[in-house]
Design brief:
This protein is α+β, with helices and mostly antiparallel strands and about 675 residues long. The strands form 5 sheets. Strands 12, 13, 14, 15, 16 and 17 form a 6-stranded antiparallel sheet that branches. The chain has a 5-stranded mixed sheet with strand order 2-11-10-3-9.
Length: about 675
């Protein structure tokens, strides 16, 4: 293929991919399968890798990320991003309407209503139809330049559609994480033994400020646009502006509506009060704007808010009921969580009998007492929570609440780490829910993968006295298992086979399965690779632990605390005696030569003579090291076909030596 042919093909592929993106996000249609779409993208990446100078600033390949931003530049907004005044009732909306009427001196005006999405406000500037800059709201006057991260959001056009657009304009919208994506992300974190994320809004906000744009791309953020700004937009109303940005290919939520009167606005609000829960995005209200842009200018602004717009906030769904009791749940890590036992009450279409109380601090802040009538809300949270007390209903005789001092399961005195809100039961070796939770974590498919043991089986084994820690799994006999309720010969054999097979699980999975606090799957892999065996890890000092990349003070101290306990030392010794893997596969570190000793490589692309895995093994076999990202410390970028253009660009910028497959083969020839 000649350079000119490549240029034509790059343009064709870019247009085709942009079209499919538009159909998917704006028209909710899929004209090609995911596989076919990926093939087109891979072909474009391949061509741009061969001809990097032909890559356009609006290339769809920027969706995959790869740019690393150490610091985000502060940008002053051309137009201030003002906040809206809030209102919570129909009467307050009617008062707003009267102010609009008085300010305009006429009742000849109309409103435009949109749902208020619970995300992160963003400003996008386009020059000659191409995305030039993406900036967060910040303080309304200035925000952070997050252009590289915004380009990975597939519903944000890198280039607008059509030809009818101003030379320069700005659109504003809300970046959000779809609810389905958020829940899937939390499920994965839970499976990996990591702390779950709080809510979609905070997750979206944190994601936009990540340094590595490839991680942002993997988070599958979305964006609804709802505003057009500029000096040559040629629109008379907000409705015209919405129609215009739709025609340019921007993702606009199809929930908007034009209303002639404030009463129609109120009807719109009532319609969406329940329907909004069917959307795949969190919402917390409605935005109401005077439709005419001339009338907006006439009404003007206060010091903080526009006079022509207002936000109606839905009240969190709430109910009043009696607090009958407080019980406590003990988790796998020993964390003790107080739970309100309520007089059953209907809330958001379901009967609520229990609600979260979070921790002792929250109970004290609200001055909760058993017997109080409490307000229970089910807003954006899945689990209902107690938000306050109706003091007018309190009986004077109700005693002040006292938080428990001992574990409700094993009666061990609770501890509270300085700086943390939760109480913990330290009796990890004898507290029933901790033992059962730890075993459940140990046998999980992401750890030792003993799929023949579930929660019910763990309970049966524990209740029989056969299971006091994970090492006891390897002492189980056929008779013990066969005599459990519901077990027969085949099921008993399968359980024991699963336990036996787990002895071959790699060391890093065993380390993760131990359930050491803050040691998730990724951390376990890094520790295993660095220390290579359990004994070296057990003997490591605080300084040696924090020297491992991505291992901070908190993880290091947790490891020291875990290995300092005699019962944990005994547990590891029993597991080692049972035959579990206490070191990484030594073949990973055996080398045929030291030709590449001390040299680091990044492998990118497709190669003629070797797979990427084979190249990794060859590098390791000759004393070298393979890393995943390009930095100034990297020695070589081993480049093949279809190499990521971002890696090539960064390597050139850092003046990294780029070698071909044949170059590499020459390096390891003796």
């Amino acid at each position: 293929m000649t350079r000119e042919e490549a240029n034509i093909e790059i343009k064709r592929l870019s247009q085709q991919i942009d079209h499919y993106n538009y159909q998917y996000y704006q028209e909710s249609e899929s004209e090609v399968s995911d596989y076919e779409f990926d093939q087109l993208m891979n072909r474009l990446i391949e061509l741009e890798g061969k001809y990097p100078d032909l890559k356009q600033s609006d290339s769809p390949t920027q969706r995959v990320g790869g740019t690393v931003t150490k610091e985000f530049e502060t940008v002053v907004h051309k137009y201030r991003m003002l906040s809206l005044a809030n209102t919570y009732s129909a009467d307050e909306l009617r008062e707003f309407d009267q102010r609009v009427k008085k300010g305009l001196g006429t009742d000849d005006y109309e409103y435009f209503c949109e749902l208020k999405f619970d995300g992160v406000a963003i400003s996008l500037t386009y020059v000659n139809g191409k995305l030039e800059k993406a900036v967060t709201r910040g303080d309304g006057t200035r925000g952070d330049n997050i252009t590289a991260n915004a380009k990975t959001i597939r519903s944000i056009p890198l280039k607008v559609r059509g030809e009818d657009y101003p030379a320069e304009f700005e659109v504003r919208g809300e970046v959000f994480m779809p609810s389905t994506v958020f829940h899937a992300l939390n499920e994965q974190k839970e499976a990996d033994g990591e702390e779950k994320l709080a809510n979609p809004r905070n997750t979206a906000s944190g994601t936009l400020k990540m340094q590595d744009s490839s991680i942002v791309a993997a988070r599958k953020l979305d964006c609804y646009l709802y505003s057009l700004l500029g000096e040559d937009n040629q629109v008379a109303t907000h409705e015209d502006a919405i129609k215009k940005i739709e025609s340019m290919g921007f993702h606009v939520s199809q929930t908007y509506e034009k209303c002639d009167t404030i009463e129609q606005v109120i009807d719109y609000i009532q319609k969406w009060e329940t329907q909004r829960h069917d959307l795949d995005v969190e919402t917390d209200g409605i935005v109401i704007k005077v439709n005419s842009l001339d009338q907006q200018n006439e009404l003007g602004f206060t010091a903080k808010n526009p006079r022509w717009a207002i936000s109606y906030k839905y009240k969190a769904e709430s109910a009043l009921t009696r607090l009958n009791d407080v019980v406590y749940q003990v988790g796998r890590t020993g964390s003790v969580t107080p739970v309100a036992v309520l007089e059953p009450v209907l809330l958001a279409g379901t009967t609520v009998k229990r609600a979260s109380l979070h921790n002792a601090n929250e109970i004290e802040r609200q001055d909760l007492r058993v017997g109080d009538y409490v307000f229970v809300e089910k807003g954006g949270e899945i689990i209902p929570k107690v938000t306050g007390v109706d003091l007018s209903k309190r009986e004077e005789s109700l005693p002040k609440f006292e938080y428990i001092t001992h574990c409700p399961e094993c009666d061990t005195e609770l501890v509270r780490v300085e700086g943390e809100a939760n109480h913990y039961c330290p009796n990890i070796e004898a507290c029933p829910p901790q033992i059962k939770g730890m075993v459940g974590h140990f046998v999980h498919r992401k750890a030792m993968d003993i799929d023949s043991i579930g929660d019910q089986t763990i309970k049966l084994l524990y209740d029989k006295g056969y299971l006091k820690n994970v090492a006891d799994l390897y002492d189980l006999t056929y008779e013990q298992v066969f005599n459990l309720d519901g077990f027969k010969e085949l099921s008993a054999q399968n359980l024991l086979k699963g336990v036996e097979a787990s002895k071959q699980a790699p060391f890093e999975l065993l380390l993760f399965g131990l359930g050491i606090r803050y040691v998730g799957k990724t951390v376990a892999e890094k520790l295993a690779l660095h220390f290579k065996n359990m004994e070296a890890l057990r003997q490591a000092s605080f300084e040696e632990l924090v020297a491992v990349p991505e291992i901070g003070d908190r993880i290091a101290q947790s490891l020291l605390d875990y290995f300092a306990k005699p019962e944990n030392q005994e547990l590891i010794e029993r597991l080692e005696k049972a035959g579990l893997q206490m070191e990484v596969d030594p073949s990973q570190f055996e080398t045929s030569s030291d030709l590449l000793e001390g040299k680091t490589f990044v492998i990118s692309g497709v190669f003629e003579n070797h797979s990427r895995d084979e190249l990794k093994e060859l590098i390791k076999d000759n004393g070298g090291k393979v890393v995943s990202s390009i930095s100034a410390k990297l020695d070589y970028l081993l480049a093949g076909d279809k190499m990521g253009p971002a890696k090539l660009e960064k390597a050139n910028k850092l003046e990294i030596t780029i070698i071909s497959e044949s170059d590499f083969e020459g390096m390891i020839q003796t």
